[in-house]
Amino acid sequence: MRPLIIAHRGASNLAPENTLASFRLAKELGADGFECDVQLTKDHKLVIAHDFFTDAHTGVKGDIYDMTFDELRQLDFGKWKSPEYEGEKIPTIEEVLDIGKDMKMMHIELKPYLDRDADFPERVIDAVVNAHMEDKVILTSFQYGLLGRIKEIRPEIRTAALFLNTESSLCPPTALWEDLGLTNGDPLLEELSGPQGLEKAVSIVENPDSVDEENGLLVRYLNDRLTALSSNYPGKNLVEILQQYYYQTDMLKYVSQFDFPLDYVGPEYHVCFRDTTLLQRAVEMGYHVAPWPVGDESRRDLRSVLKQNPEIIVTNKPEIVMAILQGQKAQ
Ligand code: G3P
Ligand code: CA
């Protein structure tokens, strides 16, 4: 059976991620649904954005948790991708739920900022329930405690636990390298995406003078990613976080110890490449599966994931996945 195609941050290969334009394009392209990231503004509005910091996608220095909704709505979240998207605003969760209504499925990832908002899951659930989208939405997170809370409040809403290795989370996305004047293979990028990536990121953030001044954006980016990492493991220090990653190497054993019912496991593609039997074993254990990509996935990556027959494929490139699947059908 053909997998459900979920456009990651919308059709984010072609349109600016996490904007109404990218979600509408996903629908036009024929994706079955889309994924988006939800955060709380300073005045407790639920908005859709991946990074905490606004610098990379708006050119304006700021942080979503520290800005009001009105301040954020002044910013242009589209122009960085291409002039054709100039004027795209940060969406609200309600606007995005409205687009998802006539699609098959919507993944909403909870991106908490440290432990600031005790009622974050309740707020997201309220938005989903008010939009009557309980049966279409899957709430996803790297902060597994939030998934347990969701199940306590609304057991019928499906949840997914996300997994990746630390290195993939720290290497800056291609668009940002280009802005920074870095090229593929740059030693700094290699180091950040290598086994010592986390230590390197911490040392840059703690000693910003160790990198060139024009890399201020890189320092802000790494600080943002490290804050996201800490937010996923409230109260844990770096060593304890690394320990958790070590335990997660056996993802299925890890999730089987959760004290709440989990519906989906969402491994990053490389986790599936490392263990090609993982998805099948997850299904045998009763989990649904939804692999997802970091960065700029290649056709080859997509073909490798599709070979594992996932029930869902989350992708930045729904247009390519559809072309691959159509090609296979025609053969
Ligand atoms: O679909 C899961 C995926 O979106 C999680 O990672 O960093 O892209 O939000 P990230
Ligand atoms: Ca996400």
Show the helix and strand layout.
Elements: E1 4-8, H1 20-29, E2 33-40, E3 46-48, H2 55-58, H3 69-73, H4 93-100, E4 105-110, H5 120-130, E5 137-141, H6 144-153, E6 158-163, H7 166-170, H8 174-180, H9 187-192, H10 197-206, H11 216-232, H12 238-247, H13 251-256, E7 264-267, H14 269-274, H15 278-284, E8 288-289, H16 299-307, E9 312-315, H17 318-330
Parallel strand pairs: 1-2, 1-9, 2-4, 4-5, 5-6, 6-7, 7-8
Antiparallel strand pairs: 2-3
The structure holds SN-glycerol-3-phosphate and calcium ion.
The site of SN-glycerol-3-phosphate (G3P) has 11 residues, from strand 2 and strand 4.
Describe the structure concisely:
The chain contains 17 helices and 9 strands. With 331 residues, the protein is an alpha/beta fold. SN-glycerol-3-phosphate (G3P) is lined by residues 8, 35, 37, 50, 107, 109, 140, 162, 266, 292, 314.
Characterise this structure.
This protein is α/β, with parallel strands linked by helices and about 325 residues long. The protein has two domains: about 5-165 and about 240-330, Phosphatidylinositol (PI) phosphodiesterase (TIM Barrel, Alpha-Beta Barrel); about 175-230, no CATH class. Helices cover about 45% and strands about 15% of the residues. It is built from 17 helices and nine strands. Strands 1, 2, 3, 4, 5, 6, 7, 8 and 9 form a nine-stranded mixed sheet that branches. The protein starts with a strand and ends with a helix. The structure holds SN-glycerol-3-phosphate (G3P) and calcium ion. The site of SN-glycerol-3-phosphate has 11 residues, from strand 2 and strand 4.
